[in-house]
Amino acid sequence: MKDQALKGHLDLLLLAVLADGPAHGYAVLAGLRDRSDGVFDLPEGTIYPALHRLEKAGLLTSTWSTESGRRRRTYSINAKGQRAMKDRRQGWEEFSDAVARVLEGNPWPATN
Amino acid sequence: MAGHELIDDYLDDIARRLRWRPDVDAVTDELRDHLYSAVERRVAMGSSSSEAERETLAAFGPPGDVAMDFATTGTSGLAVPTSFTVTAGRLALFAAAGWILVLVVITASQIADEVTGRWEGPPQILYLVGSVLMLISAALTAVLVVALVQRHGGLGIIGRLGIGLATLGAAASFVSWFYPGWVTLIGVGSLLVAVAIRRRSLAPQPPAILFGAAWLLATAATLGLDMLGVGTPDEWGDNRTALMIGLAVGCVGYAAALIGLGRWMAREDAITDETIRSLAVADKVDQPV
Fold first, then answer.
1. Do B38 and A26 lie within an 8 Å CB cutoff?
2. I want to staple B152 with a disulfide (CB 3.0 to 4.6 A). Which of A7, A16, A105, B200 is the partner?
3. Cα distance from B104 to chain A (closest Cα, Å)?
4. Please, are residues B137 and B170 in contact by the beta-carbon 8 Å criterion?
């Protein structure tokens, strides 16, 4: 359940992590895990297709470098990505506020 | 790099599953950087090398899952070359030859009409042959478009709209003599298909752009030349010179586009049904841990 919900918001979360600065996939994942205090702990391979999708959508750009003899791809959020993040963040806030208001009517544990 | 046998086996497995991707080397390089970094971090925290590799691969996910995610990235389906897309690519080369033949035969019919001064006989027969060739070429082109849809895992609403308009234009050609109307419909449809292909970033871009532009340029050439007064209308009001130049632009442009797209698809290594199943079924037993 948590994984499914997380996948639904993965694009926004990746954009938010990259809004702090350019990073390669491993650092993006670490940022996601650290900023959620370990709650968001996806299968690590999941984020690469998502990063590629965001790049194809024109929200990210990537560059290659060589680190410790290995090729490394670093992603950066661009202006279009910033705008997309702002829009999605607003959508998320409206959604979560609405959910919170509904739940306020039924304090946990729910009673009939 | 020595000491990462499990990781390297895993990457080989991913590369085998994704071998149809033009950027497979870049993908494996990127995953290698991640996996090696993760192993190094675990070793630094006290794990043995083999423990670190096993833990890293377990955290990364089964190769079937990862490959499946890549195969469906940015698509609504599985975007892989199959025996059908490879065959359609080969047929597209015949379609390209067909469009050139259409141009040659229709041009010959017009010249014969001018020379003999009567439509009945050779000019009419050549025109009918050209029309049949056009039908065959259009059918082969349609097969390519279906294959392009499959190869891209679907082309979304823009692609579907484009195919719909192009089909409408093709149908209109049977009932309407208003050439610019139905050619424009086919042109706009082709343009939308090209836009959808371009958004997927899989097919080579120049032939995709040409595919979208050919018949719109043909219409523009016909109407533009007519407005400029190049050529004279016949007794039916058709400016044959403008029409023939427009037909040449469309046929040659479409043929070049079909050659580019067809060669790309025909040269791909079709993945087998077994490989498709291995992508579709994320088999955890397949994970080398």
1. yes
2. B200
3. 41
4. no
